[in-house]
Amino acid sequence: MAKFVYMFNEGNSEMKEILGGKGANLAEMTKIGLPVPFGFTISTHACNAYYDAEKTIPAEVKEQVMESLAKLEQESGKKLGDPENPLLVSVRSGAVFSMPGMMDTILNLGMNDETVEGVARLTNNPRFAYDSYRRFIQMFSDVVLNVDTYYFEKLLEETREEKGYTADPELTAEDWIEVIKGYKQIVKKHTKNAFPEDPTEQLFLSINAVFDSWNNQRAIVYRRLNKIPGHLGTAVNIQSMVFGNMGEDSGTGVAFTRDPSTGEHTLYGEYLINAQGEDVVAGIRTPQPIKTLKDEMPEVFQQFSETCRRLEQHYRDMQDIEFTVERGKLYILQTRNGKRTAQAAIRVAVEMVNEGILDKKEALLRVDPDALNQLLHRRIDDNHERNQLAKGLPASPGAATGQVVFDADEAELLAKDGKKVILVRQETTPDDIHGIVAAQAVVTSRGGMTSHAAVVARGMGKACICGCEAMKIDLHEKVFQIGGTVVNEGDIITIDGGTGEIMLGEIPMIEPELSEEFQLLLTWADEIRDLGVRANADNPEDSAKAREFGAEGIGLCRTEHMFMDSKRIPIVQDMILAESFEDRKEALDKLLPMQQGDFEGILEAMQGLPVTIRLLDPPLHEFLPDKEELIVETTTLKITDPDSAELAEKEMLLKKVRQLDEFNPMLGHRGCRLGMIHPEIYEMQAKAIFYAVAALAEKGIEASPEVMIPLVGHVNELKQMRELVVEAAEAVQQEKGLTITYTIGTMIEVPRAALTADQIAEEADFFSFGTNDLTQTTFGYSRDDAEGKFLQTYIENKVLPENPFAALDREGVGKLVETGVKLGRQTKPNLKTGICGEHGGEKSSIEFCYYTGLNYVSCSPYRVPLARLAAAQATI
Ligand code: ADP
Ligand code: MG
Ligand code: MG
């Protein structure tokens, strides 16, 4: 018989697939002797069996549950439903991958009109017994019977008001008895049935509900967002209850072993005295920081800190721990590797190496390259005045500006329109996930550092402020008020998640810098990686940034941006419109010194590191005015001023624009085809490069240009362009009387180039795979059309696994890259190869580049740190 149920002392942390994350860790903690209330786990296989049996619990599973329950009863000396000595349990879902807040937990199961008396007697605390019972009714009704918590909360609020109480602890046992009566009426009214009093029935109904919650809307959304497969199923943990609501010597809390925002090695978390379970996370009462536990319960605090240390040592990672104190005794209810910001991930990894917990390679694998993006984001410029409205808890660092929205759907809608929004809520629930995804940042007026909003935002690397109690939100009017200031929906605010400040209006931001730990981690990455990292940059500022972030050269310097400069565009247009060779030459002569200046700046910034300069690539019409506009202008002039020189000029221009018009510019007259037809353009650019090198040489500055010919499809194209560049070099060398070191290579970005790479390598010193165009030409997609029209549908329908423009398509485009490298090196074993498409900054593509034997990847300066780390991870 298949085993579907495991006692906590039968499992371990390796069994996540079967026991779910929570169950496996409860078993592990039991194994190492930590104070975990005993229980058992119904496996994920049972969940799948439940779905296979059309949502009924198979008899086999039921049997095993009953057997395990008997063991639990024996171990605890209590019995489910026994009025004399009742066992109470929690029913906790737990999937393989942690899905915080996605599934529902039921506490105090086993309570009914009889057992509550038993609990009251045994604990000598009727107030506690009835409070626990009413909590059970409320949770069970919400999760299992689908009766909204709202009705219960409303009744409770009415009772409080009637009695003149401000908080729940003021309610007496008699008050709770009354509330329970009311609760049962609510259940009766909404379900047409009495509240189920039979504990075994309660248990199985709850198990059903946990299994069902695997497929509730918010779980599905969460899985989609986090790419968690739906077939895994969830486990169910049945665990004997311990009680944090037994009085002033009891409590419940959540803590991280290190600060999940900054990574600082200090206990971080919060707790509530005389409270149960979800009270802390739900943000109903604002909890106390863990530090004060030291004064309130010194012994418990001591024991807790030790347990934290032990768990960290055991799991070799920062832990996120849920605990409860019952009458001064500590219990651990959950542990898992804590979610953290990128900043924290780096600091924790580096410090754990220093503490001897991890080695460098392990530390490098602990940081997700994708998460680095959040660190390289801009932050608020300290030189500007902060128009501070209020301060909340700094729950997730980063700064953001956007318009205020109060609703997740609205946030999503506006974001789709390209608006930047900040989601403002009293608190968030899993139903708000899509709004958090769409927003730049989240602000809540209630809840602590471990509230839902805080946890989710940190996980996504979004700025977040929680528990900003000064903020009075009126969802009806769609405004919030802080002191005398009223902020309406749509107003712009800026927030700083690192300080908790909320500010009115937009505040200038500044560029990021790398922290010391970050730098250190990256030097470890550099020690380990074999793959070079360069940057794509086409001006001195970006080049400097690239070097600062650790780029070892420039892999792609595009020259077309230099042509777009507003002062130059008229000269560029003159060059394009020239009717004679002389006219064209005149324009080019004017452009040459400008280009030379560009190259000098970039080469100087790179201080002798290699700089791959691509000669002009886009179709020429991109430099001319828009055709439709010209038609309108000439038509207007024909009526208003038919004899003007302006009209004649515009008509000329229109004629030329029409000549240059192409049916399919992406496959038209561009790349080296420009140089083939107008060699004087490439000649000017080549000379500008060499003059720049000569000028720098005079100043004693080294430069290593690599001249790159784009869009070659046939070796003869490269051969001809190579001759042209060599001639330019010779001319400049002769004129300046010096020797210039340079190389000439090509971009491999059409399939024919990859397929004939052996021939092309005869003329090339290096290959740079231009995977943006190579993806377009391999798939036959024009990117702009594909991404706008059908690619999304393809991905949603799983026609394509991923957007091939984001992550390199290994099977198709990748095969061409492999072929290109292999054939090229057949001809020239030391042929230098790199990649310069956007894939150069994407981790799975970087891994592919490493396996394919490329020498380097090149990406935007801001992605250089990511690429250094991803390259190291690929090597490990
Ligand atoms: P989630 O996955 O949403 O965190 P959990 O199953 O961890 O849900 O339960 C939430 C909280 O309920 C726990 O942090 C703990 O405080 C409380 N809880 C769960 N089981 C027990 C138990 N057996 N005794 C006391 N409290 C419990
Ligand atoms: Mg939990
Ligand atoms: Mg290209």
Automatic annotation (TrEMBL):
Residues 17-54, 55-298, 302-352 form the Pyruvate phosphate dikinase AMP/ATP-binding domain. Residues 516-874 form the PEP-utilising enzyme C-terminal domain. GO terms for molecular function: ATP binding; kinase activity; metal ion binding; pyruvate, phosphate dikinase activity. Residues 419-500 form the PEP-utilising enzyme mobile domain. Substrate binds at R558, R614, E749, G770, T771, N772, D773. It is an enzyme of class 2 (transferase). It catalyses: pyruvate + phosphate + ATP = phosphoenolpyruvate + AMP + diphosphate + H(+). It comes from the Bacteria. Mg(2+) binds at E749, D773. Its cofactor is Mg(2+). It holds the Pfam family PEP-utilizers. Its EC number is 2.7.9.1. Keywords: ATP-binding, Kinase, Magnesium, Metal-binding, Nucleotide-binding, Pyruvate, Transferase. The active site is at H452 (tele-phosphohistidine intermediate), C836 (proton donor). Belongs to the PEP-utilizing enzyme family. This is Pyruvate, phosphate dikinase.
